[in-house]
Amino acid sequence: MSRTKIFLSLAAAAIVVAGGAYAVLRTDVGTIVGLGLSEPAKAATPDPAMMAMPVPVTRIEKRTIPIYLEYSARAESIRSITLQPKISGYIQKQNVTDGADVKEGDLLYTIDPRDYQAVLDQARAQVQRDIAALDYARSNLDRGSELAKSGYIAKDTYDQRNSTVKQAEAALAADQAAVRTAEINLSYTEVRAPFSGRLGRNQAPVGTLVTVGGAPLNTLVQLDPVYVTFNPSENDLAAILKARARGPIPADVIVPGETEVRHKGELTFVDNSIDRSTGTIVARATIKNQDLSLLPGQYVRIRLAVSNQPDALMVPQAALGSSQLGKYLYVVGEGNKVDMRLVSLGPTDGDQVAILKGVSENDQVISGNLQKIGPGMPVQPLPPQQQAAQQH
Question: How far apart are the C-alpha atoms of 228 and 284, rounded to whole Å?
């Protein structure tokens, strides 16, 4: 066989193999087309309902809210005194520890009472002696009275006996006063709390000689209630006075680092003149401090409820967002799509804030998943039961 014939035979075989492969390939493609998998657009287009982001929503609450004026303030003690001894002597005992909370009448310090007890005993003995002298003088006067009527003694003698009785009565009265003085001085050896409050640092250790008008023993401050003093501006004064004319103004105190109001009271004092240099006036509220957590000099915030705002549209503060254009809310718009509303804010009340402009009472405000949605995106508002389940 010649080389030419061999070449022609190999070429013919290659053509047959290529034709068979082409037929198989067309058959497989037809099968794929028949299955509908050759349309990538259809495979990449999911159901729009499956893309909707489930979001919790809240209805706008329409109610009356209090209007507050809020200020920086300082707590002050209503009574703050220095404990001074009323007598001289040595400190015998400190009956309570430094910084202790005490009640009115509690024994704080004891001064050595022995000298004052001796003076009291002496005064009482003098009273007993004067009582005996008075009894004798009265008996002598009674005998002289009968003798004077009979003329057996001179009238001058009778008058002397009468004078002796009166002198004895006066001496007894003086001695009884001396007893009361000695009792008072003895009572001063016990230094007691004149009111309920908290002690400071002890300044007279046991054994210290204290004197009247000398070094103090300690300090005592009243902690319940306390004053909270602040300085409203003259622009707020009209609103405060108007509210005060209607009745007591409630006052709430907020301690730095806390969000809940634990101390309440009412406005009790507004000064009678405005400071020309600052344009403010001194005002003061009396605040209950039953847990004794407010201390004199402590910085706090105080707010006064001066009026009410009716029909305020309230939404959770957590639903607010911020942008370069200002504060906004996401609401469920037409077709369950996100609608962004720029809003104007009013006063706050707890964890809610009043919306002055931008929403209506019937809007559904989106209150969760805010980082996962944007304007125009489809959303699926969750029913209340699912919202409660997500919160727990």
Answer: 6
